[in-house]
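Continuing the batch. This is chain 6 of the set; chains 1 through 5 are on the previous pages. Same settings as before, nothing changed between runs. Recording input and output for traceability.
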Amino acid sequence: IDLGVIVCLIGPSGCGKTTVLRMIAGLETPDAGEVWFVGQNIDPVPPHERDFGMMFQDFALFPHKNAAENIAFGLQMHGQTQAEIDRRVREMLDLVDLSGYEQRDVSQLSGGEQQRVALARSLAPEPRLLLLDEPLWALDRALRERLMIDLRQILKEVGVTAVYVTHDQTEAFALGDRIALMNVGHLE
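Output for chain 6:
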């Protein structure tokens, strides 16, 4: 994959899309073959050392933290100073069009707003690769269609390389620079 490219991995439910994403993330070990990134076999690299961001279907936000605290979490894990964290949280909220939402509890946010906070959190540490596992799946169709265009613009603005898993052709064609079709565990 070239830098800054969005690859959509598409296929029917149960074909292995999420498993591939989890192997790239280092959360699962391949039964055969190797996972390579930027010319290096990354199988022996632990997930927390890969510098990859991941956004899940259910957003995986911390319910006891507000929007800013959710976004700051990864930055704190990377040992950034509070001033750096505050600056980056503001940048990310501005990027996802949620400036002024810093103190909002995630339970007070709509599904689309929660999705934007989850995206901001995954982008805040400036990952080398962003992995997205059907992040729009839980949203209603109208909101999903609106957010897929916003999501592509945000990913392009940041310039992050991304692998996006979906079973929705419309989503794949709207978001992806490249499409990879999976069927029964094989890349077609």
